Amino acid sequence: MWAITRGGFNQKIFNLPKTLSRPLMATSNVIRVSSPSYSTSSPNHAPFKRVGTHNGSFHCDEALGCFMIRLTDKFSNSEIIRTRDPKVLEGLDAVLDVGGVYDPNHDRYDHHQKGFEEVFGHGFNTKLSSAGLVYKHFGKEIIAKELQLGEDHPDVHRLFLAIYKSFVEAIDAIDNGINQFDTDKPPKYVNNTHLSSRVGRLNLDWTDPDQSPEKENEAFQRAMALAGSEFLESVQFHARSWLPARSIVMECIAERFDIDPSGEIMVLKRFCPWKLHLFELEAELKVEPLIKYVLYEDERGKQWRVQAVSVSPDSFESRKPLPAQWRGLRDDELSKETRISGCVFVHMSGFIGGNQTYEGALVMARTSLKM
């Protein structure tokens, strides 16, 4: 589990379940989860609030939703109440994944009711789960605190969309039974390593002799910790790494004609995760012609790489692979074939090659464009 402050996300600060702030309590159908002390920067004396979700078997969406909603000012000191009793749910300050109502004005975030078709928007069409609903309404606040910016800042909005795309949307889709691919064919392999599967395995095993509400509640608390810590890791990555990389790629795209008159060769001044940014920025900036090669320095080997841009972010096919006659060759043999000094290698697929110098790598890219 994690703590949040105005200065950003702190390291893990406790182990579960020993750090419960007060004992677990249960009635016939109400379980109180006294969640550990992760909080926002809101005052410690803020009014105590209660957030409800269902008891029984749990899934990743409500575990993450409960975690996220407690990162907000409004619900930073909230207690998690696990019940299906309508009368109890009615009196709570917020309700997630149960109750049959989606009404953000009253903090009701269920998605199981007939007629529910809410999506995240911004070009995303996946039906939301309780996690997606909480993120839709509170995600910008959480991200703004990490960046120490206002919620209306463009960087907050960029991260808001990027984290939904890379993290939250999959949880929404899995919980709603939406296939990743448009096909009725069975998958070629089973993947039980994703976050939703790992959270699901935290449910009490049927062989466990202790099936008490208290034991179930401890398991849910571990599920919140798992889902929440990975969510915060995603926010940290996007704030620390993804967002700065976008600025670098944008600058390099703007300077592409200084590298080569074709505009089809881009040089990274500093290596960073560039691929997804490149595709998004090409579309956003209406780049024409599309970039074919990206050059960057391999810091470990102090050599330069020429990488062919793929046709799409998840494709192994390149827009213009390095020439077939170069592929699989190395060192002197490759330099002789290319008539370019300092060549190191070209991959068998033609998606990447190397040269000892920047000048040599640039000549490789320029020559490839003409072949």
Automatic annotation (TrEMBL):
GO-annotated cellular components: cytoplasm; nucleus
InterPro entries linked: MYG1_exonuclease
Signal peptide: none
Any single Pfam family the record assigns to this protein: MYG1_exonuc
PANTHER family attached to this UniProt entry: METAL DEPENDENT HYDROLASE - RELATED (PTHR11215), MYG1 EXONUCLEASE (PTHR11215:SF1)
Family according to the record: Belongs to the MYG1 family.
Protein's name in the database: Metal-dependent protein hydrolase
